[in-house]
Design a protein that fits this description.
- By secondary structure, this protein is mainly β.
- The chain has one domain: Chondroitinase Ac, Chain A, domain 3.
- The chain is built from two helices and eleven strands; from the N terminus they run E-E-E-E-E-E-H-H-E-E-E-E-E.
- It has a six-stranded antiparallel beta sheet, with no helix packed on it.
- A hairpin with a 5-residue loop joins strand 7 (about 95-100) and strand 8.
- The longest helix is centred in the C-terminal third of the chain and has 6 residues, at about 85-90.
């Protein structure tokens, strides 16, 4: 998707049929730095995990906000109930994290703007996932 410099945009990704429910949104602020008149942004879901890959050509994604909805198929992974004291404890431990190219995980300051929805301002392009610390 091409986003004009100085324009605010909201990119919405939905799950497939039959539910077509919200999977992720990327909010692009009107103050996003750009080296051209527009920025080409790509948002790709990560199969098998709650996450997206973000890329940008012609500018930076600094200041963009990613929100991920995990409501539809939420199931605590094996061992999470014991570690966090149950499904709700695990859910409270969830953050949005950036997966670095070397495999390290950086947890971002994460907000909960709604039930089953996590949101974080991203530092730039990269892979962003819903995760809980060990």
């Amino acid at each position: 998707m091409a986003v004009a410099r100085g324009r605010r945009r909201l990119i919405v990704l939905r799950r497939g049929a039959p539910d077509n429910s919200l999977f992720a949104t990327v909010s692009v602020p009107d103050t996003m730095p750009a080296s051209a008149d527009s920025i080409r942004i790509s948002v790709q879901p990560r199969p098998g995990i709650y996450g997206v890959d973000l890329t940008a050509v012609g500018g930076s994604l600094t200041g963009a906000t990613v929100s991920l909805s995990y409501a539809v198929h939420f199931v605590a992974p094996a061992g999470a109930r014991a570690r966090y004291g149950g499904d709700l404890g695990f859910e409270r431990a969830l953050f949005i994290a950036r997966v670095e190219p070397d495999g390290r995980v950086e947890f971002l300051p994460t907000a909960r703007p709604g039930s089953d929805l996590l949101s974080a301002v991203v530092p730039g392009p990269g892979r962003y996932v819903v995760a809980a610390p060990h």
